Amino acid sequence: MSGRTGGDPACLCTDPAARLLVSAAFTTIRERYVQARHQIAAAILDADHRIHLGLHIDAMVGRAAVCAEAGALSAARLATSAPLIAVAAVRYPKPTESCGARIVPPCGLCRELLLDHAPGLRAVIADGPHAALMPLTALLPHKYVGTKWPTGPSRP
User: Fold this and answer.
1) Is residue 114 within 8 Å of residue 87, measured between CB atoms?
2) Beta bridge partner(s), residue 125
3) Which residues lie across from 44 on neighbouring strands?
4) In 10-135, which residue ranges form alpha helices assigned H by DSSP?
């Protein structure tokens, strides 16, 4: 991954599903990148092998920003009630950065949100020169459990 835009970080993935998700997120953010507005794209794979995309939407007021993973989750739930299998997110470099696009893990808020809606979800995590799927629960071992949903979100 050389140069500002670098290559597709999917080359770090040995797992075919991880490679597919990272490539989809990379292609999306490469095409939709706008400095200070859209810097991350995410892709979610469902059990029917469909990919759902989301784009980070930044805002002047930070709390109003929407993470790419939340957008992909919303897109997935609009399209299907199939179980969600895996997620990947890719950050595109700013013009001032010399690094390439890179795989990023979901933020803490997205970890909570994704696990609320997909308790078995796996995430693509970069670890040195490789990236692999790992259970999202491994990144959030002590998830908040409230009383809003007795056994998880309801399904239609």
Assistant:
1) yes
2) 132
3) 52, 87
4) 16-32, 68-79, 108-117
Are 139 and 105 in contact by the 8 Å Cβ rule? The answer is yes
69 assigned to active site: yes
User: Of 53, 56, 47, which is closest to residue 17 (Cα–Cα)?
Assistant: 47
Single out the catalytic residue among 31, 69, 97, 112.
69
Is the pTM here over 0.85, yes or no? yes
9-139 topology per CATH: Cytidine Deaminase; domain 2 (3.40.140)
Residues 6+ apart with CB under 8 A from 87: 21, 42, 43, 44, 45, 69, 72, 106, 114, 121, 122, 123, 124, 136
Average of pLDDT values for 136-149? 84
Q: Which residues pair with 57 in a beta bridge?
A: 66
